[in-house]
Write a structure and sequence with these properties.
The complex is a heterodimer of chains A (about 900) and B (about 110). Chain A has about 900 residues and is α+β, with helices and mostly antiparallel strands. Chain A folds into four domains: about 10-80, no CATH class; about 135-355, no CATH class; about 355-535 and about 765-890, no CATH class; about 555-745, no CATH class. Helices cover about 55% and strands about 15% of the residues of chain A. Chain A has 26 helices and 21 strands. In chain A, helix 11 (about 355-390) packs antiparallel against helix 16 (about 495-535). With about 110 residues, chain B is α+β, with helices and mostly antiparallel strands. Chain B has a three-stranded antiparallel beta sheet. Chain B is globular, with a radius of gyration of 15 Å. The interface between A and B is medium-sized, with 23 and 19 residues.
């Protein structure tokens, strides 16, 4: 079926062929008839008649031929394509150095892009894993003193909102809750939430088994029911299909299991919600939240998170307007609210990612730069190679290959190259995923939702195809434009060179400029990170171990019984720890520094006029045991630490921080003064201690108040222990002591204080490491690129340089000439990159701490580095230029 | 007896292949040869013959090429390919089975 050559195709040939065949047939028949004795005319007439309808036969022959023609053309195209691919493969394999470098370069660019996009896709783009995700909004309050900070809702205000909201449906409240699950003598600490009816309807979640929380469950006095998470059901109950109706022991009471949620459901997930509210990383069980009649009047304890679903057709803006209206009505009824709080409505999807959105977008931009640089480098390589292949192309053109055929060949070749690079890159990304995710900050929202999915693969395939086509077009344009006959005669070398060289130099300038921007960004983040690490946390984390202990809350809270019991428990634990050998000090605190958990309160100083409305000063506060300051080595500035005086069941003292003393008692001695904060009565200041960064290292110092354990007992506190030995060894000690005091209490979040410190910098470290990696990769690629171009320029100018040397130019001058080329290119890149970095500096502003994102010194350093690299990369070619033998150079042409 | 022109579907292909197995020839030659060998029983209809030749060519069993007859006329000569030779064997076997079966029925019934 293979045709050696092709004649004009179509109807005419086939028809002519057949006409000739038919004519022969009729002629031979006529002759036969004449030989048989017929007259010539009669014979011809009989023969024609006998042959039949010429037109009809011709038509059926034509149809058969056309079918064959079509299938042949298809086969031919396919064969040509196969031939192209095979040829491309052979060409690529024949120059392994080029192919490997090009594929690795692309793999680096595409792999980094794939990995980064996977993270961005999982965290920012994919909808949250709840059916109603797009319509979910969170309703917060925000303090007038620091607008934008998300505070929870008071029960009374929530109940009013639930009744009055016109834009939201299934308005429901939820609150973090820890449980101690006891079965077979084992107790385990579980994190979950208390939720009102409507919570699951708002999210659109259906249970896997049973039912969710119904309206009759969240009434006061309703029977205890619980919903289990899938993981918990599998882990503790072996996935028992008859779990419904069984009783489980939680916090010393029994709860009936009414449902199991599907796999993966873990809302509320701490990283999606403001960090101060103590939500766990993943929730594993849910119980109803019951309101007592008194709760309806509770307007002051802001402690509920509120979620609602936009009614169909309504927007977040509508909800905002509606809730503002609701709030105005609320203020009429509860005037004191007006002073302190206003409502804040945020889409859940935005709230979940607002902390990291900016970093991820910047990193995605950075990786796009890296990808562009990688592509520029590969284009450069291709252009170098196309110069070397001019002869091959010229021969093929001379043998009759058309421009289209050649262009297709180049396209196939480059697509193949890009595909190989892309495949390696995606493999690299999948392989390196573990390393990247290991580096992700633990509190990155939505880490669970990150996977390499089809959209990642589709985007990569798109990039590969665009890159392949772009490479193909660049190469083909250069190839087909050149004068092939000159190339064959061996004189055309320099005639194609100029446009060529311009393109390549342009690519290099772009590479240097992009590298500059990446390096400048990395430098700014790096400086910011160093500054952050030098920030005094206010404590000495070395040698300190910490863990959280959570005492079970029973349904009925008894203020006369419970708080003293909590205080006794934590005092017992810390006292026992302190007597162990090697332990220097042990203490307990309600809000561990740098862990993101904080609470604030308004306060007033006795003997001073009351503050103007809305001007009430605010301080953050924590309850601490007497060993706390010594365990973290928080220095005493004046007065004393808590001691025996505070061990009585009701203490009357407090300790304030240095910044609080400086701000509210300037030039006075605060010791002995009395402050009314949180409690309805005033406490006496007995000591002033150093400032500690409570939330994060980069958050400002906030005035702080410490209450003694006896005055502010809490059911969950962090233990801090300092010892002379390795801090890690303290975990077993802590477990031992806990077992002595109460074997039923589990230990949660055990870690060294240094880990806590590192954890608070995790997000910055993540951004810095990635950006630094991208910048270094970019620098490496740019270096290789500059070297390639300069080396190529030198070999293109061998003749010219040879003449210069022959005419007596100093080899040194020739070297300078080449070095100048490298310097000019990198210099241009540096100037453009500098302008770019200044323009983009604003983007970085929110990612850096106490550092100018467009720091002139850093920019200067980057400029020097890049110019140095540009020069260094030109040294080898320059040395080669110096050593050109003028005679050999002239003869070679 | 007037020559029969109603050849069974598929039989014409077999006959053409068989004729070409001996020697390559043109359309007229094929028709003549079939007429001759069948002792004037099977006269091939030209309306079937030429489309059949094109079909066989399409399947790759025969190839056509222009040549010159002994009378110095341009004619399209058809030639059996090796695929055509295999096909001939196959169709011949099929035909034997088929005609044997018909024979058996005629003899017994």
């Amino acid at each position: 079926m293979r045709r050696l050559f092709r004649l004009a195709t179509g109807r005419s040939t086939s028809d002519e062929d057949f006409a000739a065949e038919a004519k022969l047939h009729v002629d031979l028949r006529t002759q036969e008839l004449i030989e048989g004795g017929m007259s010539p005319a009669a014979a011809r007439e009989a023969a024609s008649r006998h042959f039949g309808d010429l037109e009809r036969i011709s038509r059926s022959c034509r149809e058969i031929d056309q079918n064959r023609e079509r299938s042949m053309r298809r086969t031919e195209l396919f064969q040509e394509l196969r031939h192209d691919v095979r040829f491309a493969y052979r060409t690529l394999v024949r120059s392994p150095a080029f192919t490997v470098v090009a594929i690795l370069t692309l793999a680096l660019g595409i792999g980094a892009t794939a990995a980064m996009f996977t993270v961005v896709n999982g965290v920012l783009l994919r909808p949250l894993p709840y059916p109603n995700a797009p319509g979910l909004v969170l309703v917060w309050t925000t303090p007038k003193s620091s607008p934008g900070v998300e505070w929870p809702f008071a029960a009374g205000n929530f109940l009013d909102l639930r009744n009055e909201s016109r834009v939201l449906e299934h308005v429901s409240a939820f609150r973090a809750r820890s449980f101690i699950l006891t079965s077979d003598g084992n107790s385990e600490l579980l994190e979950g939430a208390r939720v009102t009816a409507g919570f699951f309807e708002a999210l659109g979640m259906q249970p896997l088994l049973g039912r969710t929380i119904a309206t009759e469950d969240d009434r006061a006095g309703a029977p205890h029911v619980v919903l289990l998470g899938y993981g918990l059901w599998q882990r503790r109950f072996g996935g028992d299909p008859n779990i419904l109706g069984q009783l489980v022991a939680l916090n010393d009471s029994s709860y009936q299991v009414v449902g199991v949620m599907p796999k993966g459901f873990a809302f509320p997930r701490g990283a999606e919600l403001p960090s101060g509210l103590g939500f766990p990383g993943r929730s594993e069980l849910w119980i109803p939240m019951a309101f007592l009649p008194a709760d309806a009047e509770n307007r002051g304890s802001q402690n509920l998170a509120v979620v609602g679903l936009l009614k169909s057709g309504r927007t977040v803006e509508d909800a905002r307007a509606d809730i503002a209206l609701f709030w105005r009505g609320l203020i009429q009824r509860v005037p004191p609210l007006a002073e302190v709080l206003s409502p804040l409505v945020v889409a859940l999807q935005d709230d979940a990612t607002h902390g990291i959105r900016r970093s991820l977008i910047v990193l995605l931009g950075a990786v796009a730069f890296l990808l562009l640089i990688a592509c520029a480098n590969v284009s450069n390589l291709l252009l170098t190679r196309s110069t070397a292949r001019h002869r091959e192309v010229a021969i093929r053109v001379a043998l009759g290959a058309g421009n289209r055929r050649l262009a297709r060949q180049f396209l196939v070749e480059n697509l193949l190259l890009a595909l190989a690079g892309g495949a390696c890159g995606v493999l690299l990304a999948v392989a390196g995923k573990g390393a990247l995710f290991g580096m992700l900050p633990g509190h990155l929202p939505r880490v669970d939702d990150i996977t390499v999915d089809w959209s990642v693969l589709a985007l990569m395939l798109g990039i590969v195809i665009v890159a392949g086509i772009a490479f193909g077009i660049t190469t083909a344009a250069h190839m087909t434009r050149s004068d092939h006959s000159e190339v064959l005669r061996g004189t055309g070398k320099s005639s194609v060179g100029r446009a060529h060289r311009r393109t390549r130099q342009g690519l290099i300038v772009a590479e240097v400029a992009l590298s500059f921007i990446l390096l400048a960004g990395a430098a700014a983040l790096g400086r910011s990170f160093i500054v952050l690490q030098r920030v005094q946390s206010g404590m000495d984390s070395q040698g300190v171990f910490t863990a959280q202990l959570i005492l079970p809350l029973t349904e009925t809270f008894d203020p006369a019984r419970d708080p003293p019991r909590w205080a006794r428990f934590f005092r017992e634990i810390t006292d026992r720890l302190a007597t162990r050998p090697g332990v220097i000090a042990a203490g307990a605190v309600t809000a561990l520094p740098l862990s993101g958990a904080w609470e604030s309160t308004g306060f007033s100083i006795e003997g001073r006029p009351a503050a103007e409305p809305g001007q009430t000063p605010i301080a953050q506060y924590a309850g601490v045991s007497d060993g706390y300051f010594r365990a973290l080595r928080i220095p005493l500035r004046s007065g004393r630490f808590f001691g025996a005086e505070e061990r009585r069941d009701s203490a009357t003292s407090m300790i304030i921080s240095e910044s609080m003393a400086a701000r509210y008692f300037p030039g006075e001695n605060p010791i002995g003064r009395r402050i009314k904060a949180f409690f309805p009565f005033a406490l006496e200041i007995v000591g002033v201690v150093g400032d500690v960064r409570q939330t994060t290292l980069d958050s400002p110092i906030v005035p702080s108040i410490y209450f003694p354990l006896a005055e502010y007992p809490a059911p969950n506190m962090s233990i801090v222990v300092r010892s002379q030995q390795d801090a890690r060894a303290l975990e077993s000690l802590l477990r031992e002591v806990l077992k002595e005091v109460d074997p039923g209490i589990p230990l949660s979040r055990p870690e060294t204080m240094l880990d806590v410190l590192a954890g608070s910098l995790a997000q910055q470290r993540f951004s810095l490491i990635l950006l630094a990696f991208f910048a270094c990769a970019a620098l490496g690629l740019a270096t290789v690129g500059i070297y390639g171009v300069i080396a190529n320029v030198v070999s293109g100018r061998t003749r010219e340089l040879g003449i210069r040397l022959a005419l007596g130019a100093e080899p040194k001058a020739v070297r300078l000439l080449v070095l100048r080329d490298g310097l000019v290119l990198s210099g241009l890149g540096v100037v453009i990159g500098g302008l770019g970095a200044m323009a983009l500096g604003r983007v970085l502003a929110s990612l850096v701490y106490a550092v100018n994102p467009v720091d002139p010194l850093a920019l200067a350093c980057v400029a020097v580095l890049l110019l140095g690299v540009g020069t260094a990369a030109s040294i080898l070619p320059a040395l080669r230029a110096m050593r050109i033998d003028p005679i050999a150079a002239l003869r070679a042409e | 007896m007037s020559p029969s022109t109603d050849l069974l579907q598929g039989t014409l292909d077999l006959l053409v292949l068989k004729v070409l197995a001996r020697d390559s020839t043109h359309g007229w030659g094929i028709a003549q040869r079939i007429l001759e060998v069948s002792r004037e029983v099977l006269a091939v209809n030209q309306g079937s013959l030429y489309p059949a030749l094109h079909r066989l060519e399409d399947r790759g069993w025969v190839t056509g090429s222009w040549g010159i007859t002994e009378n110095n006329r341009r004619a399209r000569y058809y030639q059996l390919t090796s695929a055509g030779r295999r096909q001939l064997e196959l169709e011949r076997g099929e035909w034997n089975r088929f005609s044997g079966a018909v024979e058996a029925i005629l003899r017994s019934a």
